[in-house]
Amino acid sequence: MEVQEPKSRIFIFSHPPSASSLLKKMLEKHPQLHVLDDSFNMAYTLGPEKLERRDRGDACDSESRRKMSREETYQKAFDRLHKSMTRAEQEGRRPLFIEDAYMIFRPDVTSANTQHDLSLTAIPTPVIMTSKTMPTNFRCPLRASRSPQSSNSPLFTATFPIFHPITEGLGIHTIESRPPNTNPTVLPDAFLKSMTPICLIRHPARTFPSLYRGARPTHNVYGSEFPINASIRWCKLLVDWYTVATGTRAIVFDGDNLIHESSTIAKVCRALSLDESGVQNSWDAMLREEIGEQDAMTSAMNATIQTSNEEDRSRKRDDEIDIDEEARGWGKEFGLDVAEAIKALVAGAMDDYLYLRQYAIN
């Protein structure tokens, strides 16, 4: 595998809740960095191009959050992110972009890689234009339903179609043609290639029940959205795409190591040419009003880290997990039917987790 110098921009992608909130806390005051997280959350959950396959209901979000999201397209979120990155670089800091991978994945890709039937919730793919001459409100009117094209690389165990934004008939003649995106997200290839990729994972038996715990009562474990959230496939597809597209594998590390081993963050800093002294291992707990402005699921999943002032190393390690034993606990908490559904999702995600874990920094 080719070894390259880390790019200035950093992209951390994960599946919730994989200790990304802990990582953010540790790095958010680093003098070399400008942390940008949840850039596409409102576009995914509430905006006019929302990709979330459920009705959240008014109880999930504050009125101010709903009002802010009414015109929050993926294009607007991308433009704001790109502007913030550029400004950070002008100030001499390195942009650090943190996002749950599923929030930026194309809906045709998530449908093709989810065992549940999503045919009734098919939705169009948002299009992000990088040229200033393109209309910012343009949205692809059709699903990207091209015939799947398998990668020549054996790394891809799931396929997704190459996406060609539809530009014919727009009446714009100043746009230079550009190659189609080959990556599985709505973001441009060039943008993804401009960053050093880091994949953060966590054992699904630790994360999936926590995800469900935070998502109740509006998240149905049998619905179309939960299997997308409770999946490590999106991280795997991005890692594989980076390997094929750039010749360099993404840096992978396990959230369990981040929690229990202080050397993990030090190794990440060295890989990114960051000064280790800029990492904070304690912080102020968030104020109640700050937590109140979050959506309900984010607040519930991040409750431990947001109301604490340091990382919690008291829980047993993930490699000590007995899934059957954990499932009995889920049954007592959620009911037997829900516990069995979560256990099935955990079992279905283990291959992807173990595949990525073999590359994890330890």
From TrEMBL:
It comes from the Eukaryota. Residues 52-72 are annotated as: Disordered. This is P-loop containing nucleoside triphosphate hydrolase protein. It comes from Alectoria fallacina. The lineage of its organism: Eukaryota, Fungi, Dikarya, Ascomycota, Pezizomycotina.
